[in-house]
Amino acid sequence: MKQSNKKAVIGLYGLAAVFLLVLTSVTIAAPTQQSADMEKVRQGMSKLLSGRQADSITPSPISGLYEVLVGPQLYYVSADGKYLFSGKLFDINSREDLTTPKVAKVKADAIEQMGEDNMVIFSPKEYQHTVTVFTDIDCGYCRKLHDEIDQYNDLGIRVRYLMFPRAGVGSPAYQKAVNVFCADDKNDAMTRAKAGKDVEEKQCENSVAAQYALGQKVGVTGTPAIFLADGELVPGYVPAAKMQAILKERSR
Asked: Which end of the chain is more exposed for a tag (fewer CB within 10 A), N or C?
């Protein structure tokens, strides 16, 4: 090989080595910078939350902005941890809401973690949809919804009840919820309680207080509060036929 060709090859190898070194440095620096940013965000949120830690911190679609989950609330925080805004983030080109689905999923996951052993479930043998309803025994519209429980089931909708005594833990409504949950036949007790009939007062190990706390965590402010499988909240009484239409539309 001629001397000039040897020099050219060596030069190319040298250039490649320098390029590889630069590329490696950038690759290493990027996550290091991201980690530093996330630590600043964590510290900023810790001040705001009086020492409580955020549940998760992840990069957002916008450079220099991080998504911070605190319970079911999603916030956007600057990389220096100094600025926060709460609201929905949209992709302009696709017109897609990037915030709501993420928040809904957190709520859906929280509900699933409660477990069906802690729910009163009215289900047909075969069903296409499941909804979870936070209910208060004495709530008029909750009773109206329960009056249609057979219609819900006939339309292939499985209903899972969680207790949300609006007057809080220790209230008469709370005790009624406990009575239902502690009954030998929870479904029958729920139906009788919703009809205004007395249910034998009982005490047992129960999760009614935890269900109430969960409702507060996922944003329940009134009853009935109906959550779809993806975590979207449909507030208030919804007739069975209308609920079926909502579920069919969403499953397309």
From this structure: C
